Amino acid sequence: MMVGPNANESSATYFILIGLPGLEEAQFWLAFPLCSLYLIAVLGIDILISTSSMPKMLAIFWFNSTTIQFDACLLQMFAIHSLSGMESTVLLAMAFDRYVAICHPLRHATVLTLPRVTKIGVAAVVRGAALMAPLPVFIKQLPFCHSNILSHSYCLHQDVMKLACDDIRVNVIYGLIVIISAIGLDSLLISFSYLLILKTVLGLTREAQAKAFGTCVSHVCAVFIFYVPFIGLSMVHRFSKRRDSLLPVILANIYLLVPPVLNPIVYGVKTKEIRQRILRLFHVATHTSEP
Questions:
Q1: Cα–Cα distance between 65 and 17 in angstroms, integer?
Q2: Which residue among 29, 54, 214, 278 has the highest number of C-beta atoms inside a 10 angstrom radius?
Q3: Which residues neighbour 69 within 8 Å (Cβ) at sequence distance 6 or greater?
Q4: DSSP SS3 for 242
Q5: What is the pLDDT along the chain (291 residues), one digit of tens a residue?
Q6: What whole-number distance in Å separates Cα of residue 183 and Cα of residue 233?
Q7: What is each CA distance from 290 to 211, 283, 286, 287, in whole angstroms?
Q8: Prediction pTM value
Q9: In this structure, are residues 17 and 156 in contact, taking their beta carbons and an 8 Å threshold?
Q10: Contact, 27 vs 20, CB < 8 A?
Q11: Where are the beta strands (DSSP E) in the chain?
Q12: Is residue 210 helix, strand or coil?
């Protein structure tokens, strides 16, 4: 057990989650809109990644329940990182689906059969869990002799490992390997798939281009919603020297809460309307350009 920055070397038994640094007095009221966003995410059936962090965050804001046991922290850390890896794999699979639908439409039904889609789903779960499983194991090997106060409202690997008083190069190197082999590779393949899609779409008629845009727009929005906060959070953690900064905390909360809230809206409510507006826009542009 450690409560100060100069405690003797020992194994951590619990950590302290501080919520929003500098906004402690406002946390109680901020919890209400956060809870509303969480309910929207749950009702939109995007439940796992937000549930891995939001109940504890609300307990911190409403009841000042800042303590989290060491093993519970590791479990939460594994859940957050593995679910993020799974979501990245799903976005990659959806990019492949868009590629086949637009570039090889006649083969779509034979390529993406139900058994194959099921295998992709299983592979996403296994990949996410397997890549992140070593993280809590590495953390368990570290001695903690500094403060046990974390800078977030939940447990992240980047945050926990900085409290160790031993060499954390293994954690840093493996973290980079995970980011490059999972998030980096997935985002690269998604970008490549859209380059191929763009090449195909440029050869289509205006009406077909608009339909292709309607097919891809929701997925492109989901990609940006997921990757932009993740990349921002990773950059801040890697280069920021201040542990009391509010920026990484805000980015972390955006990363875990905003995508589950926006994804059901992006995929469900607006897709048809956006497609209709784009088709109307292309028709207007076509008639305007005619002599």
A1: 8
A2: 54
A3: 13, 14
A4: coil
A5: 454 444 444 567 889 998 777 777 888 898 998 888 888 888 778 778 888 888 898 999 899 888 999 999 999 999 999 999 999 999 999 999 999 999 998 888 898 899 999 999 999 999 999 999 999 999 999 998 878 888 888 898 988 998 898 889 999 999 889 989 888 999 999 999 999 999 999 888 888 888 888 788 888 988 998 898 888 877 777 776 665 567 777 888 888 888 888 877 777 655 555 455 545 655 555 555 455
A6: 13
A7: 21, 11, 7, 5
A8: 0.83
A9: no
A10: yes
A11: 14-17, 67-69, 149-150
A12: helix
User: What secondary structure does DSSP assign to 21-73, as a single string?
Assistant: TT-GGGHHHHHHHHHHHHHHHHHTT--HHHHTTHHHHHHHHHH---EEEHHHH
Q: Which two tokens stand for residue 199?
A: 């090449």
- 76: amino acid identity, one letter: Q
CB 188 within 8 A of CB 48: no
Q: Which amino acid is at 149?
A: I
